[in-house]
Every structure is written in structure tokens, then in C-alpha cells.
């Protein structure tokens, strides 16, 4: 029996559990803002509040993402309505998120459809074939400041305002989501004042950066999976192309079981709140790439896909073209 068939019993939404998770997440999100505002300037308390807020934001995104797969609730219409409302918290228009994310799933591990993935990845051959400015661009793009700080801020605050493929998903989606988001921001400023809003923005930046770290480590590790379209095996791409972030139960709670991303890619109908239980039940047949904090942080060193060795490599593993060596 295939792993997908073994996972099938878990691909059933539990509406009560879904509602409870949304309530808990809402309390985390707004409770963290309140604490951050009251104790603004008390750095230990603020740090804890920022972590809780980031957890709330990531959990909201996880719920919206499940709604996009019609997996969070049993009713498709409820999934759509909740997904649209959650755009106020995730800064991501629901219909655009659903369309673009489904492309990511459809083309997981496909070298010929890399534009569907969150992080640009070049092959060693493409890097060698690029001109000086092309290689300089890719090195800058893959640098730690861009990947983990400037990039997330650009995506969260600017790119999501008009996401890609908006012509296919509709402008109403974008206008509605941006209105909801700015309405939420205005309410936080009006009710909580400038201190609450300052904490809110700081916490949003942290959430965006940490969420990007999770996604990066989830797909950009040494033994990731990439094949050309005619050779892609969906099950292998799903299970081998996504890592399991083994950071412990608090992390799993705060991130709505994002760690079990391999199983999610294999079977999108398993709601986030059932992913861990499913992963535990199938532990005897799964062979996940598990990573602790140190290994996940070190993933930033993997820059290029080597088609010969079938693994990610560092820039230092690749012989630079003479022009770039001279420039450095």
C-alpha cells in the first residue's frame, strides 16, 4: 500500500478542532500585541511577546493555507470565507495565495518549473553560463541579508500587495485583502496607540523573517530533490524534497505543524492540526530528512543544484569563472 493511501484516514477535516485552533491562534495574536504594548521597552517580555505573536501569525497563515486546499473545514464555502478573512493577518490575498501555492505543489521538485517555487535556485551549469552581472545578482539574492531579512520584508510589505498571477486570480481579491489588512492595522493603531502599532510592526518583521527561514530550510537542504519534468516522481519529490524541522513540541505548536511539510506535500488534504498525528502513525514507512536547529540554520550555505551529484552545493564547491574570480 502506498504512503498516500496509508495517510488517507487523516485527510478528513474536524470542524470543532479547526475552530478551537483558530480561537487559540486569535488569543495568541492579539494577546501578544497587548502584552507587547504594555511592556514596551521591557526587552525580555517583548521578546517573548514577539515569539508568541509570530506563532499566531504563522498559525493564521497555516490555517489560510489549509483553507486554500479546502482542508481546514469540511465545507468548501467556509474554507473560502475564512481564508479571505485571514488575509488581513497574513497580508496575502486568498485567491492569489491559493493559485500560486497550488502551482508550487503541482511542480514540486521540477527543474523546468522553478518559477513556481518560493526561492530561486540555479543549477551549477546555469551559474557558469550566466554573465558576470547575472552571477553577481544570484550571489546577492542568495546572501544571508537578502534571504533572511530584506527579502521577507519586501515580500510581506510590498510584493503581497500585488502578488504574481493577479491577472488570473482577479483584482477584487487584492483590493479586498488590502482593505481588510489596512483596516486591521488602523484598528490596532486606533485602539492600542502608537506603542501597540510599533510593537505590531516589529513583530511582523520578525514573523516574516522567521517564516522565510522555515520555508528555506524546508526545501533548500543538501539532499533536496530536483529533476527535469519528464523524470519527476511526485511521491519522491514530495517526501525527499521537503525536510522535517525537528525543533520540538513548542515549535510544532507555534508553527501549526509546519515541520511535517513532507507529508503535507504528499497529501494536501491532511489539515495542519492532523499532520503530526499522521506523521507519527506512518513513522515506520517514512524516511524523512530531519534537521535540528543547527542543521536548519546551516542550510543557508547551500546555493546551487548540482545535476551531476544530485545535491545542493556551496559557492565554494564550484570553480568560479575567471571574470568573477578577478572581481573578487
UniProtKB/TrEMBL annotation:
One of its GO terms (biological process) is lipid metabolic process. Pfam families: FA_desaturase. The chain crosses the membrane at residues 20-39, 45-62, 78-96, 140-158. The keyword Oxidoreductase applies. Its EC number is 1.14.19.-. Keywords: Membrane, Oxidoreductase, Transmembrane, Transmembrane helix. The keyword Transmembrane applies. Residues 45-292 form the Fatty acid desaturase domain. GO terms for molecular function: oxidoreductase activity, acting on paired donors, with oxidation of a pair of donors resulting in the reduction of molecular oxygen to two molecules of water. One of its GO terms (cellular component) is membrane. PANTHER family: FATTY ACID DESATURASE, FATTY ACID DESATURASE 2. This is Omega-6 fatty acid desaturase (Delta-12 desaturase). It comes from Yoonia ponticola. The lineage of its organism: Bacteria, Pseudomonadati, Pseudomonadota, Alphaproteobacteria, Rhodobacterales.
Amino acid at each position: 500500500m502506498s504512503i498516500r493511501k496509508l495517510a488517507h484516514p487523516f485527510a478528513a477535516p474536524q470542524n470543532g478542532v479547526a475552530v478551537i485552533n483558530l480561537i487559540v491562534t486569535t488569543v495568541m495574536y492579539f494577546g501578544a500585541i497587548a502584552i507587547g504594548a504594555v511592556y514596551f521597552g521591557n526587552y525580555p517580555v517583548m521578546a517573548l511577546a514577539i515569539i508568541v505573536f509570530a506563532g499566531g501569525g504563522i498559525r493564521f497563515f497555516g490555517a489560510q493555507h489549509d483553507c486554500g486546499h479546502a482542508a481546514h473545514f469540511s465545507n468548501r464555502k467556509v474554507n473560502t470565507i475564512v481564508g479571505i478573512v485571514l488575509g488581513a493577518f497574513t497580508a496575502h490575498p486568498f485567491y492569489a495565495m491559493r493559485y500560486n501555492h497550488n502551482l508550487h505543489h503541482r511542480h514540486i521538485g521540477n527543474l523546468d518549473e522553478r518559477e513556481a517555487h518560493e526561492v530561486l535556485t540555479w543549477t551549477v551549469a546555469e551559474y557558469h553560463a550566466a554573465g558576470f552581472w547575472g552571477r553577481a545578482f544570484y550571489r546577492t539574492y542568495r546572501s544571508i541579508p537578502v534571504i533572511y531579512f530584506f527579502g521577507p520584508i519586501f515580500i510581506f510589505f510590498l510584493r503581497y500587495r500585488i502578488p504574481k498571477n493577479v491577472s488570473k486570480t482577479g483584482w477584487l481579491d487584492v483590493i479586498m485583502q488590502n482593505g481588510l489588512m489596512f483596516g486591521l492595522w488602523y484598528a490596532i493603531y486606533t485602539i492600542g496607540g502608537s506603542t501597540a502599532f510599533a510593537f505590531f510592526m516589529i513583530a511582523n518583521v520578525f514573523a516574516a523573517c522567521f517564516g522565510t527561514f522555515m520555508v528555506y530550510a524546508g526545501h533548500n537542504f543538501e539532499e533536496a530533490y530536483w529533476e527535469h519534468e519528464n523524470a519527476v516522481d511526485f511521491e519522491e519529490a514530495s517526501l525527499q524534497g521537503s525536510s522535517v524541522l525537528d525543533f520540538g513540541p513548542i515549535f510544532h505548536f507555534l508553527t501549526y505543524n509546519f515541520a511535517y511539510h513532507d507529508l503535507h506535500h504528499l497529501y494536501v488534504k491532511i489539515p495542519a492540526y492532523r499532520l503530526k498525528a499522521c506523521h507519527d502513525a506512518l513513522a515506520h514507512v517514512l524516511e524523512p530528512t530531519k534537521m535540528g536547529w543547527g542543521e536548519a540554520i546551516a542550510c543557508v550555505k547551500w546555493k546551487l543544484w548540482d545535476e551531476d551529484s544530485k545535491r545542493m552545493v556551496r559557492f565554494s564547491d564550484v570553480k568560479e569563472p575567471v571574470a568573477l574570480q578577478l572581481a573578487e
